[in-house]
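User: quick one - fold this with CU-O-CU linkage bound?
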Amino acid sequence: SQVRHFQWEVEYMFGSPDCLENVVMGINGQFPGPTIRAKAGDTIVVELTNRLHTEGVVIHWHGIRQIGTPWADGTASISQCAINPGESFEYRFKVDRPGTYFYHGHYGMQRSSGLYGMLIVDEHGNREPPFHYEAEFELLLSDWWHQSVHDQQVGLYSKPFRWTGEPQPPKTHNRRIILLNTQNTINGFTKWALNNISLTLPPTPYLGSIKYGIHEAFDQKSPPDNYDDANYDIFNPALNPNSTYGNGVYTIKFKNTVDLILQNANALAKNVSEIHPWHLHGHDFWVLGYGEGKFRDEDEKKFNLENPPLRNTDVIFPYGWTALRFVANNPGVWAFHCHIEPHLHMGMGVVFAEGVRRVGKIPRAALACGLTASVNP
Ligand code: C2O
Ligand code: CU
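Assistant: Sure. Structure tokens for the protein plus CU-O-CU linkage:
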């Protein structure tokens, strides 16, 4: 067995783990911290220097039993004093058993700041692992918040406390669009429709035609925010399955909060209602709830506004409804459609336009077809 020495300095640095720059805690300028690789029976020596300016620090070796070295466990207030800014502490301990471990800060909420890394202990000496494998890679999973740990701490210690978490959804909506999903026929062809309109895309892309006010490019009448027959029986094939093609657009006021209620129904054949994964472009949405049967206004009371999942695709179950909320804060023209490709091709989608005036200079190549081919941006 060997003694493995490491010299580590802990300091704050900039990092963008999910492409959004933030302050993270690094070790020797790395986030996550360097991987320690050792063999069972080895002794690890980490000389840890605290380069933070205003906080103490400790590091805990998660899963290592610290037999005979309880002072090296790295828990502030439990096994050791926090290491003050500018000071160093030597962790010296034995890794007696092979395994995939990790290490992490154990003072305040420094783990949430990114103070962690991997600790991998291989078999003793030349001993082979008890199973055969071709290759390995290291995967380190952790929660990540955009809120700084200081914000998180203050929130948790407030009265009433504020739970650590991202953009809860706005509490109310400005507009509700209920989309009845039906299977229909148009001149004998089988189609899918929303509020009785089956989407057919125009030759001129909406983004350009809306930005340049080319009204002939598509149907200027907005599709309806609801289906008109309040007594529509979603549990049976439609009495009149006829539908129409359409390419109108839902124009959403910029920054409005929109609720989308997807209402499933019976398809053309008796006792058939399909599942559809609806996908929204350009946004994430909050999933506020699901229900069976027909959506009723009072179902709104059951919406989950506390911790709804944030996604960009969600299903609508057979004979059920799904409620989604999004904020129209992304200038552009965006599709919202069933992600089963044949369904979209059969008309199962709608189009939202928001804040198109604010869209920057559209590249020529994106306008080179249809009625925008001749505009000169
Ligand atoms: Cu991955 Cu319009 O979809
Ligand atoms: Cu579908």
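One thing worth noting: The pocket of CU-O-CU linkage (ligand 1) is lined by residues 279, 281, 335, 337, 339 (CB under 6 Å).
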